[in-house]
Design goal:
- The chain is an alpha/beta fold and 387 residues long.
- Helices cover 34% and strands 25% of the residues.
- Strand 3, helix 3 and strand 4 form a beta-alpha-beta unit.
- The chain starts with 10 loop residues before the first helix and ends with a helix.
- GO terms for molecular function: metal ion binding; N-acetyldiaminopimelate deacetylase activity.
- Keywords: Hydrolase, Manganese, Metal-binding.
- This is Amidohydrolase.
Length: 387
């Protein structure tokens, strides 16, 4: 297998790709230029089976190994940016006002392209590699749509793998764990109904703002007093909409929030008990509450065999001391979880160094991480599909 020195020569070219993508960010499913760029690069590498237009702008490309018949494994990179005004002040900052690659998907795409170039030139594996370039990871469920459009069956994918950069983790380090890696994500809307009136005469009204404040506090007891403290559950109320003037008690307050957990059963618990708690509190004040609950990403769950393969690939690249195989699960979410529900596999973190956090206007992907991501993908393929 290959150490990092094998992939250093690809860093300059991959950096050029990454910075071009960074300058030209696109959102959700509208990653038309990005998809064109990826398709052209893949064709130039000699990848001769490229399918486009999956989930509107997604791509799946196959590289056949020269080691004979074998399974197909999928490697996934996300392509979309975020609606954020960039403040990194880098020479390659976004040229598109209000859009930026604030999560490193430009780097993810560049690393998978680098791996594609290497694998297409060597093909020292059996079976095939399916390169999955996904749109709309940032909240629009592009991963789910690609699964729903049948990529796992169409391309006979037996295992699937994902990777994400991690600010704060040293470049050249990897982090992974068996089992739950990232949390599920659900959203809810609570409408608190009261009786409007003048702020000078609250006794004539049923103030939904006061009720909403009590509900916000009350929801935290669902976590602190109704669930096992060993099991993670985070309920956050993040948006409130009430009156439009300082002297009005409104008829209703609209509340929006999120639920995150590593335990699938707690999603059902949260949906039931958020409504029950809100209605109970509201009725105590003479008001009422309505709930709309939406399921989004499931738990990102690393399977045993795929996780072991990922650990071995990372260790072969950087050594065992640079691979933390038992990192703490995180409360962020990922729609790659849908791919891991469809097929076994694993998701790993790659060090991005002391950069700003993701989704921050000052964030930028660290180009020094590029050969590590490329090398991880290549080692993973050559281990999983060893001849």
């Amino acid at each position: 297998m290959h150490g990092i020195e094998t992939f250093q020569d690809l860093q300059r070219e991959a950096t050029e790709w990454r910075r071009y993508l960074h300058e030209n960010p696109e959102l959700d499913y509208q990653v038309h230029n990005t998809a064109r760029f990826v398709t052209e690069k893949l064709a130039s590498f000699g990848v001769n089976h490229i399918e486009t237009g999956i989930a509107e702008t997604g791509i799946v490309a196959l590289i056949q190994g020269e080691g004979g018949e074998g399974p197909t494994i999928g490697l996934r990179a996300d392509m979309d940016a975020l609606p954020i005004v960039e403040a990194s002040n880098k020479p390659w900052s976004s040229k598109i006002p209000g859009k930026m690659h604030a999560c490193g998907h430009d780097g993810h795409t560049a690393m998978l392209l680098g791996a594609a170039k290497y694998l297409a030139s060597t093909r020292e594996f059996k079976g095939s590699v399916a390169l999955i370039f996904q749109p709309a990871e940032e909240g629009a469920l592009g991963g789910l749509r690609m699964v729903q459009e049948g990529i796992m069956d169409r391309f006979n994918i037996s295992q699937v793998f994902g990777m994400h950069n991690s600010p704060g983790m040293e470049v050249g380090k990897f982090g992974i764990r068996h089992g739950p890696m990232l949390a599920s994500l659900d959203e809810f809307d609570l409408i608190v109904n009261g009786k409007g009136g003048h702020a000078a005469r609250p006794n004539e009204a049923i103030d939904p703002v006061v009720i909403a404040a009590q509900i916000i506090v009350g929801l935290q007891t669902l976590v602190s007093r109704n669930t096992n403290p060993i099991e993670s559950l985070v309920i956050s109320v993040t948006m409130l909409k009430a009156a439009n003037a300082f002297n009005i008690i409104p008829n209703q307050v609209e509340m929006t929030g999120t639920v995150r957990t590593h335990e699938p059963a707690l999603r059902d618990f949260a949906e039931r008990h958020i409504l029950a708690a809100a209605q109970g509190i509201a009725r105590g004040f003479g008001g009422g509450a309505e709930l709309k609950y939406r399921r989004h990403d499931p738990v990102t769950f690393n399977h045993t065999e795929g996780t072991n393969l990922a650990i071995k690939a990372a260790r072969n690249l950087v050594g065992a001391a640079s691979v933390d195989q038992n990192i703490k699960p995180r409360m962020g979410s990922e729609d790659f979880a849908y791919m891991l529900e469809a097929r076994p596999g694993a998701y790993i973190f790659l060090g991005n160094g002391p950069t700003a956090s993701v989704h921050n206007p000052a964030y930028d992907f660290n180009d020094d991480a590029l050969p590590y991501g490329i090398g991880y993908w290549v080692n993973l393929v050559e281990i999983a599909l060893a001849t």
